[in-house]
Amino acid sequence: MNDRSRLIGVDDIAERLREVELEIGSRRAEHQIDPALDRIAALVSLLGDPHRAFPIVHVTGTNGKTSTTRMIESLLRERGLRTGRFTSPHLVSMRERICVDGEPLSAERFIELYEEISPYVQLVDDQQPVKMSFFEVLTGMMFAAFADAPVDVAVIEVGLGGRWDATNVGDGSVAVITPIAMDHMQWLGDTIEAIATEKAGIIKPGATAVIAQQQVAAAEILLERAGYRVLTAQNGSTGLELFSSHPVEAVVLDYSMPGMHGGEVASRMRQVKPHIPILLLSAYIGLPAEVTSLVDLYMTKGEGAPVLLKKLCSLLHPVNDPVNAS
After folding, report:
1. Region of 80 on the Ramachandran plot (φ > 0 left; ψ -120 to 50 alpha; else beta)
2. Closest by alpha carbon to 195, among 211, 215, 171?
3. Fewest Cβ atoms closer than 10 Å to its Cβ: which of 27, 168, 185, 321?
4. Cα angle: 185, vertex 190, 196; to 5 degrees
5. 3-state secondary structure of 259
């Protein structure tokens, strides 16, 4: 704690917090995107690489990012770990975005952090063609706060997209992708494939990828980003011939493909290559809940090992369950 923070009273702290939030808020807004990691990379380097001081669970997607981040952090905290959580946006105070052990930073600590990193932010501003944004400054404060706490693990929500998001300067040990839909098209692209490609950028080499229910096109991109040779069968093609003759590490099937039921195709593939994980998806609306629930999966890849699927809920179809598959 610095001398200034020791001396000021409660009223002074509240006033200084308002000043700090105004200073941060006067910077380039979150929606004014300049896609580059150069600025945040320069800042964390000047700060001594605080983003490397703890493991990261990195969360992106279109729907459910914040709630997923909160649930993961709560589960980790219940296991006795000291946690950091970074989410956006905030409701009342910017302090809500940076939480340690489930609680927002105190006003005093938030002020201290800002004052500690401000000289380094100014250095980056002076050296870069574009000054640091509102979100980039908060991201730098978050990394510094978590390293200083210190936390055992940080659960960090992406601000926008993934590949160029300031939080992506950190390498997540776990990358969580919630359902992807059409969002922020002016920055991420106007197709599901383009948006999925941007969000897949948080999946780093060697990381564990946790992928929620996705449209077929998005699932294929996410699996390939995770490092697997993927066979996608849809639009009337069962993919059986390619599956038998090509090296494949994961399969994405459209559950409602015409001609042959996706489950039947998956069963035949399982007979040919019993250890290949098969993901049954549907991009259609109106299927029973037990069918659309099939597509939650947990994937990890060990050295030289095949993809492993972990059963996340009791509704998983047997063909998707490596535990029960023969």
Report:
1. left
2. 215
3. 185
4. 85
5. coil
The answer to whether residue 189 scores a pLDDT higher than 80 is no
Ramachandran bin of 11, using left for φ above 0, alpha for ψ from -120 to 50, beta for the remaining angles:
alpha
Domain boundaries, the chain: 1-212, 215-326
Give the whole-angstrom CA distance, residue 298 versus residue 295: 10
Considering the segment(s) 215-326 as one domain, its CATH architecture is 3-Layer(aba) Sandwich (3.40)
pTM above 0.70, yes or no: yes
Amino acid making up residue 312:
L
pLDDT at 282 over 60: no
8 Å CB contact between 71 and 167: no
- CA separation for the pair 61, 63 (Å, rounded): 6
Would you say domain 1-212 falls under CATH 3.40.1190.10?
A: yes
Residue-wise pLDDT for 105-156, tens only, equals 999 999 999 999 999 999 999 999 999 999 999 999 999 999 999 999 999 9
* Strand locations in 56-215 (E): 56-60, 83-86, 98-100, 103-104, 153-157, 174-177, 208-211
Q: How far apart are the first and last CA of the chain?
A: 60
